[in-house]
Design goal:
Layout: E1 3-5, H1 9-13, H2 15-20, H3 40-53, H4 56-69, H5 76-82, H6 90-99, H7 101-114, H8 124-130, H9 132-140, H10 145-151, E2 163-165, H11 168-182, E3 188-191, E4 196-200, E5 206-210, E6 213-217, E7 223-227, E8 231-235, E9 243-246, H12 248-251, H13 255-260, E10 262-267, E11 271-276, E12 282-287, E13 297-299
Length: 300
Amino acid sequence: MERYKISRLIIASVFAISVVLGGMTFCPFSHAAQDGYLSDEEVRFGAAMLLLWAKPKVAEATWAISNAYQTEINVQPLLDYLAMPGAAFIPGLQSIYEANQGLVVQAAAVETVFGDDASEGMLDSLFAETLDPIVSYIDSMRKDPLTINTFDWDECKDDDDECFEYGIKEELADVCMTTLALFPAFESFQIAPESGGVLYGTSGTDVLVSRGDTSLHGGPGVDAFVVGWSGHMTIDDFSPEDKLIFPAEFFGDTLEEIVSKLTVAVDTPEGLYFEFFSDGLVKITLRNVHDIDAFQVIAY
């Protein structure tokens, strides 16, 4: 497995965001060693990150993810860049992106049900309005030292002691970060302790991450319930607008692959009950819910 500098873990943690924001297909792990030059891929990827982090709550959520999964995600360079006078227009674009959360979520659900190409073109107009102006801005600053230092990423050598192995915790941090991009209008981000607990959402959009045996109460609004670790996720108020988010690294990219991991699926008096993997590593109970729409399941 390739290794990358801890200071650049932010690249890995927003890889799937590059797919959400702008249909980019490159992997950040494929970047060559830092060369003092910004490629078109780095420019567009940087624009996607700025669009996401223009919402202050994303930084707060990122720190919570970093603490929960014991990963070092350095967001300060992005925050410093957003504080520059020339970047003052970006929060306004983030607000437009946030207002179109329903379309972004719909595209992700379509991809999960029908495959990667199924959502092609769905978000083109939105990206033209929100992402392309940031791309143009970074492109105009290609020779600026701060811009280069912020978005020109480097790859570590195997003998570099500052490198890290990209493992399970980083993969789980990924799905949390990506969910923030899928649900940009989120009011709260909460992640349960590894041993489990109880999480209560707000009256708006909430991203609630289950770990261990966790009881989740989303409240009104569109909520995202994330499988963030092994254990029993119990959702007390799963509504038709809510979504279940599965880490694709472990469950697969499509609904068909997720279903293939099911070992138990029963409708009980309490509600739908699911077990995944041969040892029931992940369990989900949807209280008072007796049917679920395919488009309520998202893999990333």
